[in-house]
Amino acid sequence: MSDILAEAVKGAAAHPRPEGINFTYGTAGFRDKSTILDPVLYRMGLLAALRSKAKKATVAAMITASHNPEPDNGVKLVDPMGEMLEAAWEKHATDLANAKDEDIGSALQRIIDALDIDISLPSDVFVARDTRPSGPPLTQALLDGLKVMGSTFTDFGILTTPQLHYLVRCHNSRGAYGETTEEGYYKKLAQAFLKLREDAGTKKKYQPVVIIDGANGVGALKTRKLQPHLNDSLKITVCNDGSSGKLNEKCGADFVKVQQKPPPGMEIQPGQRCVSFDGDADRVVFFYLNKDGVFNLLDGDKISTLIAGYLGELVSASGLQLNIGVVQTAYANGSSTRYLEDVMKVPVSCAKTGVKHLHHKALEFDVGVYFEANGHGTVLFSDQAEQKIKVASQDDSLDSGKREAATRLTLMMDLINQTVGDAISDFLVVETILSTRDWAADDWNMQYKDLPSRLLKIKVKDRTAVQTTDAERCATAPAGLQEAINKLVAKYQQGRSFVRPSGTEDVVRVFAEADTQAIADMLAHEVSVQVYQLAGGVGEQPQPPSTS
Ligand code: 16G
Ligand code: MG
């Protein structure tokens, strides 16, 4: 065994692995109670160094548990261009996290042999964390792993997840994507944002005033840092800024989306646009109260429709031949899919849940807009599209309308964080479009009316008993389940339902949608009973929704 691997085994003594716990690198890395994660972070330090050697580039490690409660934490690795860790490495991460302390050397050696990694190459890793109190000691464990591997690293301290993705791309693109500093991130976004507002005439409906619910997390801190760069173009009030409440507790994008109500304590006037980030600021949803005080949510589906519509118009106005498409998951509201396909005539693809699946599908378009209904999403421009747009924006032979549209597209590309969904960047993109269209929240919301839906979760003995195909829209196991769902769905107007095993919790999720809330609730319940009966439900059988 090489000296480095022997050091890695020795180093594990300070980060012992508890017996009897099985860790899994899931859709968003490792997530668990922070108190048991120390050995996982040490091992991810080791793995990040190997990944950097394998890619001959800087990679990154983000310490966060996103929208989960404050006592949780987690870690995920980021590839050189700011993408999620390549899926094939998730297994290596899981194996290493579960290796006994004394077996760490052989576990590393297996990865080195399988991938023919030259261990003598240098490695370099960017590290950041969210605001959780468990962040600093877990960072230390990760750095210990990097140090025994002889890796160089930069610890950026507290950042949003998308900021770290952005920085690693800036670095590996040798500055082509932007300056590799946090200030550089604010400057790039703010410059594009201000330029896109330059020609904003007088507005009748759009008010440049927003309230941001920062989930008591890093998004609130970083919005405050962005603010001075925006001059006076937008009046932002940040609430749930971490000064009193707990991270993600009764606030943030997940709370607002799931509870369908504003965080308690927020003072909101009718029509006032409000924005909720999640705990690491890679998800965003908008909401407002209408003139009757009724809560209205503008989720990831509404955001993608808004963005795809605007970018589509710019592409046509520029005269460029670029195909633009939207990627959703099965959770997307049926009305949004119909609106995109039938009214906007935009092609829609459906991907499996989890950012990496959407990201991957979005690469199939010249301009691929992807969003999960929960508010995670961004836009990807292919290299070729980017090139064509840049050339057109500087082509004096084009008429000024075409050139102007291409110029706005270049600014939109600067404003959009293409590495991963970014609450701050997405928020600025939405503000830009609303301002250009002179729309109030109501105008945006009126594009289409959401169908009522219901999401339930069912505990079963083994959630892998449920298997799906067709981007999770069809259950292939257990036998008979899909047939039962089809029968139930057929009973109801605009009924739609699917089931899938969760990737983050030990449950099966049931989604149902229909033309009224009562029917969506009933359909979700009836499908839950089928899951319970056919897929080995545990505990009491699901009870029908109360009709009171
Ligand atoms: C993870 C995913 C998120 C997905 C969620 C589904 C990433 C970075 N995050 O949080 O995109 O919506 O899992 O959770 O991919 P579920 O499998 O428990 O329903
Ligand atoms: Mg998040």
Polypeptide structure, described:
There is one protein chain. The chain has helices spanning 3-11, 38-55, 88-98, 104-115, 135-148, 161-172, 182-197, 218-226, 252-259, 300-318, 334-343, 355-362, 383-393, 400-415, 423-437, 441-445, 481-490, 517-534; strands at 30-33, 59-63, 72-78, 124-129, 152-158, 209-213, 235-239, 273-277, 284-289, 295-298, 324-329, 348-351, 367-371, 377-381, 453-458, 467-469, 474-477, 496-501, 508-513. Helix 2 packs antiparallel against helix 3 (88-98), helix 7 packs antiparallel against helix 14 and helix 10 packs antiparallel against helix 14 (400-415). A 5-stranded mixed β-sheet has the order 1-3-2-4-5, sandwiched between helices. Strands 7-6-8-9-10 form a 5-stranded mixed β-sheet. It has a 4-stranded mixed β-sheet with strand order 12-11-13-14. The chain contains 18 helices and 19 strands. It has 548 residues and is of the alpha/beta class. The structure holds 2-acetamido-2-deoxy-6-O-phosphono-alpha-D-glucopyranose and magnesium ion (MG). Magnesium ion (MG) binds at residues 66-67, 278, 280, 282-283. Residues 66-67, 278, 280, 282-283 line the site of magnesium ion. Substrate binds at residues 372-374, 500-504, 509. Its EC number is 5.4.2.3.
